[in-house]
Design goal:
The structure is a homotetramer. The first copy, chain A, is of the alpha/beta class. Helix content of chain A is about 35%, strand content about 20%.
């Protein structure tokens, strides 16, 4: 009843067993809290800092796991695409195609996603203003697809830090439903070891600010064992802490809805 | 009952009549909402962009008005100081001495404020990290004064914008009670006309995020007629909108207190 | 004789006639100044802000024009690629494959470029530190291709400005020959109209600083009629001003070489 | 003959012997290179991060040393002031009054400096755009003093880094002679230990870029033993490296003058 929705899951699909276990847990929590839930998993990671970073278990294998999660738990799914040819392929398996932040200025990719007729989730580039996202949204709607949403994953602040500009939430809601990615907006990029760092202790802080400023949804990467996740472990939420986090956020949302 | 407190008033003291009218209105609102209230007014403005900007009605005259507001409404008052010699003078009239953001690295000034025994409110420099405020706090406590608080007024983001880093709220609360200045953190400095701009329509957004992330207090400049205020009009809250804003924030605070 | 080299041309290939005219002019200037010259032209522009921006005259048609320029004037050519499949296609026509700044974190794309055996020109992401470019360079060399260079096109500074960090020049030269893109580093992105702005009057300033700090090459977009160029007109150098600019820079370079 | 000028010396005046030794060395170098020289030394340091940082040997004692340096070597001197009352006091001993970057928005201080009739050197705030310095300059000239110059000491870039925006050099030269402070523009503030860090290996890089872009002067803190200087050691130039640095810069300047 006018709750926020949640995009959550592991960063990358590591195995079917892992995906199903995470989905089962998140479904049980979100069902109880009446949070509409979309399972999130990347079928490949194309933008790692280092060539030896984990990039996936195989495209089709990962996409089939996403489909299985969807059927098993009756939840929609979202995955990110990196090339024009990924759009049609991924559209056969998932409900939402996500354009990564680095790629949101690639017109061909955005249009290819729009042309599948699936929902398109545009991540705000770390280098983009909230206002400039209206042009990205327009590329989707001009392609005849009105199902578009925006996800804020923070903005570059110096070389080694990111910051969330909460003025951007009401701004971007003028263009499309707006999601706050609490995982990636806490990244600390360009660290000297070539692996992105983070501040996961701030997840609750950023998520509360997001709900208080009216986001339509939250994006959270979560894992039973963040320290051993094959990518983005630095900012993942331990799955055992998800229920408490969401319970608190639902309480804030209810208050906000009454103002 | 564990509510946030409020530092509010006009930017500069323009006249006794204006100060008393504003105070009366804010007192009536905050009394009803059980918000501890501190009347704020600058007795001079020393850091305007242009030499022809308004700088005040006379130091002693303005300080006496602050004192009168305090006695009339039984509320504490806060004013900002700019030179070492201001500290002792202002301390005779007000309860809290505020160190402006540009001046928070001036050790002599901070120590002079601390030595008055009054509460010291340290504004975070626009050029400082939340973590670095611990050194400013320590200058006060090392002077034997434990009554110190921090106010965040945003951080430079490029030349012509500011941003509030909400990760800084829990960080700075480790050092001292932390206030969010919703007026100045919405400034847009370095505008070509030499007068700082702003985005007052974002006051509610930033204030909500502040309460949600646990600030101890809010700082709001307010005026019956922001467009004709003699300084900082760009981001002032119209006093007629204060009650609704605070009512909403109290509701969020109550929810946060229960989590 | 230990001079800097030059990558220059129009932004996008608009027509064969235009490409040949520009090349002829630049060749005559660079021959006289003993500046090694690489003709630059994009065969498509995939990352425009707005869907109605110019995106090209047709991939193969544009690539054939690049080849014709190369044969006509005996100069190498460079073009940028946006998808993995572009790499092999473009490699048949040009000598240097350029990875756009937004895409330099796309491992698959960088590796595909490296695998062609052509020189790879990695643009530093606007969101990357100079130090982090070592990981991008390593993706090329780990693919068995040692012909790699880096081009700095500025770093995000707030939402609507970019800045060149000249500390990055000696830093990146440790990893690969380093080029300064004086055209794009003067961009002012996220302007409200959805078209990137610029400060072309600063081309000489930035180029002189680049030569003084030891860049190996310069990247300049130039056009006989910048105001009517189909893309990036905002920061293009008027071709009639190129000779004077390069003459001055060669003089500075000669001095630097003797220090 | 149309050379750049140099403001150089230790950060703080530590002792008469130290000041005279440094001045003697710099005078001998700058005389040979025909560089107009101004001896620089702070008589107190009021803006340290930590209360236990070195703040000086006593105001009058330090100012008298500056006077002695001036008489001994027939060179003008510059020192920075922090409060209105410093202006008249320092003006009795030195030729140029410098407004620290943090304080350049303090109108009273700028006007007090202007009213002494001495040359006023305005440091650009780390939080200010080059364009906004015209307002600071105007405060001096509106006070009837036309002897004003600007010194760029870098601009905040994220929390822990600074950057020099060389587009600012021609911009600020429109308002007043412009100096590049190569020492402080290499600071890395807000470091976790409460002591500002730096990158002194970049002094040559930044200085060359400054000369190439047309600065009127350079500001360099230098010491025989930077590691043991009582303040700002992180970015000081070892005095034994000054001659080579300046010799190279004079060569670049001569070339620039001929363009």
């Amino acid at each position: 009843a006018n709750n926020f929705f949640l995009l959550a899951g592991p960063c990358a699909i590591e195995s079917e067993e892992m995906a199903l276990r995470i989905a089962e847990k998140v479904v049980s929590i979100t069902d109880a809290l009446q949070i509409p839930y979309v399972f999130k998993g990347s079928f490949k990671k194309a933008n790692r800092s280092r060539i030896d970073s984990f990039t996936g278990i195989g495209d089709e294998k990962a996409l089939k796991i996403l489909k299985k999660v969807s059927k098993t738990f009756q939840v929609p799914t979202v995955t990110d695409i990196h090339e024009v040819s990924d759009a049609a392929m991924a559209a056969e398996y998932v409900d939402i195609l996500q354009i990564p932040a680095f790629l949101v200025r690639q017109t061909d990719l955005v249009v290819a996603a729009a042309n599948t007729g699936k929902v398109v989730n545009l991540k705000k580039g770390q280098f983009m203003s909230p206002e400039s996202m209206q042009h990205a949204v327009k590329k989707v709607t001009d392609s005849g697809n009105d199902q578009v949403m925006i996800t804020d994953r923070g903005t570059m602040f110096g070389y080694q830090d990111m910051i969330v500009d909460f003025r951007g939430i009401p701004t971007m809601k003028q263009y499309a439903p707006t999601v706050l990615d609490v995982t990636h907006s806490l990244q600390q990029p360009n660290q000297s070891v070539g692996v992105t760092g983070g501040r996961p202790e701030m997840i609750g802080t950023i998520a509360r600010a997001g709900i208080a400023t009216g986001v339509d949804g939250l994006f959270i990467e979560t894992h039973f064992d963040p320290a051993n996740a094959k990518s983005d472990g630095a900012n993942m939420l331990d799955l055992n802490r998800l229920e408490k986090l969401l319970t608190d956020l639902v309480a804030i949302r209810k208050t906000i809805n009454q103002l």
